[in-house]
Amino acid sequence: MASPAADWTCPGCGQAFTRRHQSHSCARQGVEELFAAYPEALAVTQAVHRHLRTLGDVEMAAAKTQVSFRRRIRFAWVWMPKQSAGSGPDVPVVSFGLPHRLTADRIREAVQARGSFWTHHVLVPGPRQVDAELKAWLAESYEVLGPGASTKAAPTATRPRRKAR
Fold this sequence. Notes:
Blueprint: E1 8-9, E2 16-17, H1 31-34, H2 39-55, E3 59-62, E4 66-70, E5 74-79, H3 81-85, E6 93-98, E7 107-114, E8 117-123, H4 132-144
Antiparallel strand pairs: 1-2, 3-4, 4-5, 5-6, 6-8, 7-8
């Protein structure tokens, strides 16, 4: 189902995007199905979703390797590195975009995704780690990448291309 703010809806899967012919996977599934083998990822996803719903409208969608959260554009994701890349930590990762780079010990990577936007990756072993600090970052991402956000500089959910230190 298309979002009212969508500029283009994929005729194959019905996903809404702000860019025409946006590259994506049409594979859709339920969050429970995606993370059936990763109960901690499901619990983290549910905790993130609960928090984001307190901020306002948000769409959650599970695709082939991740769960994304969007307002007009996607601004946050939960994924399992072992599941999506076949390697990496066996711990859920919460990723989110911001127009500036954060520096904090718990940020595993910050990748300059596009323009001045950075995608931040945080290892989140369980729902208790969806704490005040992470919630504040997610709230900022929710606000910055909301309905009036420019899609020209928005982050993408692609895996990190280079590591920023």
